[in-house]
Amino acid sequence: MVEAVEKLTKKSEDPSRWYLQLVRMAKLADYGPVRGTFAIRPYGFAIWERIQRDLDERFKATGHQNAYFPLLIPESYLKKEAEHVEGFDPELAWVTRGGREELEERLAIRPTSESIICDFYRNWIQSYRDLPILINQWCNVLRWEKVTRPFLRTSEFLWQEGHTVHATAAEAREETLRMLNVYRDTFYETLALPVLTGMKSPSERFAGAIETYTCEGLMGDGRALQVATSHDLGQNFARAFDITFLDENQDRVYPYQTSWGFSTRTIGGLILVHGDDRGLKLPPKLAPTETVIVPIWRGNNKGEVRREAEALYSELRNSGFRIEADMDEEHSPGWKFNEHELRGVPVRVELGPKDIEKEQAVLVRRDTGEKEFVPRKGLPERLRTLLVQIQENMFVQAEKFRGENTRWAETYGEFKEIIEEKRGFVRAPWDGTEETEQKIKEETKATIRLLPFETEEGKDLVSGRPGSVANFARA
After folding, report:
1. Which residue did the predictor score with more confidence, 133 or 83?
2. CA pair distance 220, 186, nearest whole angstrom
3. How far apart are CA 427 and CA 407, in angstroms?
4. pLDDT tens digit sequence for 267-307
5. Rounded to an integer, what is the distance from CA 9 to the centroid of its chain?
6. Which among 157, 174, 171, 256 has a CA at the least distance from the CA of 213?
């Protein structure tokens, strides 16, 4: 794959082109026949499976259960929550025929499932004893997007959506923040991605929510990406769908709801945060292959090297590593090195005649390129330690990048200059008005990514009015 790697555009020169090339060259995804649709290839799906498994275990540890709800949603259901349907209307795809018959009512292909799930909850909830309901759904959704990119913004994508119901507003708010923290922990501990958490501004809230909380990541090109959200829905959907229950005083009241979601968009964020000019860099906890053995043989020693590589493969696989042995005889070791670097395999194990003679192997880190010679007897233990160190280092490097690209603006002129020339997160006071927010968006293309939980006061750079500090960035 030397030729392919040489043709990969440098990330620093054209991040967009680099990204689109890498998704296909690393065999993560491929374009579908319908605009905005993509096939996730086995290597890309293996990454998604590891993310999914990590999150699913965390959901179940906090008392949630998985269920599944219908794909098709009657139009009348969507119309029950006016703000909700208005927010999604431009993205809806409709089914109007069934077989050869025109349907009496249009059916939307789910863009999200609040409306259809609320109809079931209306029947399932009768008493305070039925609460809380803590349900999560793994599924696909469809949103008719105009501009698409693999993983980052696609018409059809995979995700999970949690939908919970609670007796009190306090319980619902606690749940909303709990799930935000679950997401944050997954990003920190598994994806090595140091997201910021906080609240969305009112104009950026989920349609129908009373508060939206977000995880925001900073990509390698200095743009921000919303990678997970958690919504406090209050009683809005309960009132719209007439979900009520008898409380402990036998009064019929409306419950409080939450919803929260995380999608395959995260794989796009993973690529943009950790990838480099050589290709992918995968955190060991997510890598489908943690380590690959590349035997190096010449002439008459091929048989011996191959046998030793196969024996090492069996030893490491039996020690619990996700491992490959690249026994391809058509390509050179250098070709293989480039191929596995492109795929983001965290550690490469090189094994040649001299290594066999010295009873050692060479370990090469994907994150730093560093090499070390390790005795064969101590290889499993050293490899296990090294994978932990790589996971930690990738987080540290991403956190360092975020810190170096988070700046404070003292004037509106400085704000504009940073956004245009340096990008990254810009911290500045906001007076809380949509008027100011829209002016900044129109003039700089920057939006409020989040309002931090720890508030700082200051003077709005545009209006001069008092305000609280917000984190701005281009999306």
Report:
1. 133
2. 20
3. 6
4. 999 999 999 999 999 999 999 999 999 999 987 888 999 99
5. 24
6. 174
Q: State how beta strands 211-218 and 224-234 pair.
A: antiparallel
Name the band, by pLDDT with cuts 50, 70 and 90, for residue 146: confident
Write down the pLDDT at residue 4: 44
The domains located in the chain, with CATH, are 2-274 (3.30.930.10), 291-385 (3.40.50.800), 406-474 (3.30.110.30)
Q: How far apart are the first and last CA of the chain?
A: 33
| pLDDT one-digit tens code per residue, 436-467 | 999 999 999 999 999 999 999 999 999 999 99
- Picking from 190, 189, 259, 274, the residue whose alpha carbon sits closest to that of residue 228 is 259
Contact 302, 327 (CB under 8 A): no
Q: What is the pLDDT of residues 377-388, one digit of tens each?
A: 999 999 999 999
pTM for this entry: 0.95
pLDDT at 355: 94
- The pLDDT tens digits of the residues spanning 185-215 come to 999 999 999 999 999 999 999 988 999 999 9
Local confidence band at 2 (pLDDT 50, 70, 90 cut-offs): very low
Q: Please compute, for residue 259, the number of CA atoms within 13 A of its CA located in the half-sphere on the CB side.
A: 23
For residue 290, give both structure tokens. 């943690």
- Mean pLDDT for 225-244 is 97
C-alpha span between 98 and 130 (Å, rounded): 37
Q: Which residues contact 96 (CB under 8 A, 6 or more apart)?
A: 102, 103, 106, 107
